[in-house]
Amino acid sequence: MIAWTVLTLLALQAPPPGGAPSQPAAPAPIADPAAAVFSTDVGLLLVAVKPDKTADYEEAVQALQGVMASTSDPARRAVAQGWRVYKATEADAKGNVLYVHALAPAVAGVDYRPSLLLDELLAEAPAELLARYAEALAGPPTRLSLTEVAHMAVAPVKK
User: Fold this and answer.
1) Residue closest to 77 by CA, chosen among 39, 40, 107, 32
2) How many CB atoms lie within 10 A of CB 103?
3) I want to staple 88 with a disulfide (CB 3.0 to 4.6 A). Which of 32, 50, 98, 136 is the partner?
4) Domain architecture of the chain: domains with CATH
5) 114 near 68, Cβ under 8 Å?
6) How far is CA 43 from CA 28, 79, 81, 120, in A?
């Protein structure tokens, strides 16, 4: 904290380039580390689910799917259009079932955490549905923002 204060004071005292008046920079907002916001056009969200709780997880995902598929909100429809959920045949190293939320395209600025959307969109849902969903999770989801390196059906472009 002291270092931040000293750096801020030094920055305020430094002459601005070109003689223009200096404005103190606003501190960058602190991002929620659990947010599932993607920085690229394609994203993956990997969700590990306890093996005996897959029915509970899938019930909640299908309830969310029902709301997303029937929404008339254009922003929600754009989110739903590029969102697919897959169940992996292989388990993770701890024996949990993996669900892959594929987002192509991922809508900029949208937090894709299913738990947030379930809370927001399924307010009338039975409380036990949301509780069973939360209990099904083996840990926090893993977020991957993807950048395409190669499309194998297209000849590479020389750089």
Assistant:
1) 107
2) 24
3) 98
4) 42-145 (3.30.70)
5) no
6) 24, 12, 14, 22
Please give the structure tokens belonging to residue 20: 């223009």
Q: Tell me the Cα Rg of the chain.
A: 22
Name the percent of the chain in helix, strand, coil, to the closest 5.
40, 20, 45
- Judge whether 35 and 110 are in contact, CB under 8 Å: no
Biggest CA pair distance of the chain = 67
How many alpha carbons lie under 13 Å from residue 119 in its C-beta half-sphere?
A: 7
| DSSP class of 137 | B
* Integer Cα distance of 63 and 18 in angstroms: 58
Q: Which of 57, 77, 82 is nearest to 67 (CA)?
A: 77
Respond yes or no on whether the N-terminal peptide bond of residue 15 is cis (omega within 30° of 0): no
Q: Whole-structure pTM over 0.70, yes or no?
A: yes
